[in-house]
Description:
It is a single chain. The protein is mostly loops. Helices cover 0% and strands 0% of the residues. It is extended.
Amino acid sequence: xxPASPGANTEVPCDRTIVRQRITASGRVRIDxxxxxxxxxxxxxxxDVP
Length: 50
């Protein structure tokens, strides 16, 4: 897969909160996220393929 666009460079404020969660699955994984109005954030992925 090649993204259509990497998007614009944007500065994201950071409160240095780190949350990690390991998810294992044998098929597709769907993740829904909810945010409060006015919130910002970044999600990073590390995908390990056997």
